[in-house]
Design brief:
With about 280 residues, the chain is an alpha/beta fold. It has three domains: about 100 residues, 3-Layer(aba) Sandwich (D-Maltodextrin-Binding Protein, domain 2); about 90 residues, D-Maltodextrin-Binding Protein, domain 2; about 70 residues, Alpha-Beta Plaits, CATH 3.30.70. About 25% of the residues lie in helices and about 30% in strands. The longest helix has 16 residues. The two termini are about 25 Å apart. The structure holds adenosine-5'-triphosphate, 1-O-pyrophosphono-5-O-phosphono-alpha-D-ribofuranose and magnesium ion. The site of 1-O-pyrophosphono-5-O-phosphono-alpha-D-ribofuranose has 12 residues, from β9 and α5. 1-O-pyrophosphono-5-O-phosphono-alpha-D-ribofuranose binds next to β9 and α5.
Length: about 280
């Protein structure tokens, strides 16, 4: 039975549960359940703190896990980032009151508050910058400057509104671009992992693509297919009315309206877009 670690709390937990549900796995009914056996799919889910998941996977205690790339890096543990999952996207940045610090070099001799101490210390060490102290705190990092605990912070930024509300501005490079990731232990892939991965890949494709159907005069099929080449090759079938073909093809959801406009211009009619629920490509 494949053992999978899943975030039990925080920003990662709800979208991870949603993704696994779309992949056909059983869901826990109660947020306090710690273990869930899905015998039908031959997997066992362990609901753990997102920060600890990299450690369990790194030590090989579980066969797979979902966590944040930033948490994996900060754990200092070796595990393989097998696949990016497209949610909990964030950037990791330094920030300070704009009048005080605006360059990474100015961090020398300052106190920096963060929940990601390993990540920050590694970044500073690589640049030969010696902070007075890197203070590790659990959350609400943006408040530390106002509270007089730190001179600057290093934290997760999504929209930037938390930083703005605290009167802080980012400076320097993005230290890390993060999102939720599927991770696995170093070494041989555990039995059953490929099935989990294919199911997740299926969900990602179903989210990214839609199915497009349209009718088109035969002499314009080639032009239309140039606009919608599909992943491999579009299905082109004859319509009952002679001189017309029906085309079925996958297109990126984000481009679907632009593509419909183009197809219409070429002469396509009856253009339909349908949501894809699941895929195995
Ligand atoms: N506002 C946000 N937008 C996008 N991703 C976020 C946001 N806050 C945290 N994350 C990401 O979620 C993961 C952190 O999850 P974690 O559960 O530790 O923190 P959290 O979501 O802040 O939860 P909490 O603060 O309630 O403990 C990291 O990968 C981080 O980059
Ligand atoms: O750029 P924004 O869209 O404002 O999002 C970023 C904020 O969201 C998270 O905080 P969370 O709400 O999890 O609180 P925490 O600081 O206690 O973890 C993160 O730690 C940042 O503080
Ligand atoms: Mg948080």
């Amino acid at each position: 039975m494949l053992r999978i670690a899943v975030p039990n709390k925080g920003s990662l937990s709800e979208p991870a549960a949603q993704m696994l549900a779309e992949a056909g796995y059983r869901q826990r009914r109660d947020g306090r359940e710690l273990v869930l056996v899905d015998a039908e799919n031959d997997v066992e889910f362990f609901f753990l703190r997102p920060r600890d998941i990299a450690v369990y996977v790194g030590h090989g205690t579980v066969d797979a896990g979902i966590t944040g790339r930033d948490l994996l890096v900060d754990s200092g543990v070796e595990a393989i980032e097998h696949r990016a999952l497209g949610f909990a996207r964030s950037r990791f940045h330094f920030a300070a009151p704009p009048a005080s610090i605006s360059r990474v070099e100015d961090l020398a001799g300052t106190r920096i508050a963060t929940s990601y101490k390993v990540l920050v210390e590694k970044y500073l060490a690589e640049r030969g910058i010696e902070a007075a102290e890197v203070i590790r705190l659990d959350g609400a990092i943006e408040s530390t400057v106002q509270l007089g605990v730190a001179d600057a912070v290093a934290d997760v930024v999504e929209t930037g509104s938390t930083l703005r509300a605290a009167g802080l501005s980012v400076f320097g490079d993005v230290l890390l671009t993060s999102e939720a990731v599927l991770i696995r232990p170093v070494g041989e892939i555990r039995p059953g992992f490929d099935v989990l991965d294919r199911r997740i890949q299926g969900v990602l494709t179903a989210r990214e693509y839609v199915l497009m159907d349209y009718n088109i005069p035969l002499e314009r099929v080639a032009r239309a297919v140039d606009v919608t080449p599909g992943l491999e090759s579009p299905t082109v079938s004859p319509l009952r009315e002679s001189g017309w073909a029906a085309v079925r093809v996958m297109v990126r959801r984000s481009a679907s309206h632009r593509i419909m406009d183009e197809l219409y211009e070429i002469g396509a009619r009856g253009i339909l877009v349908t949501k894809i629920h699941a895929t195995r490509l």
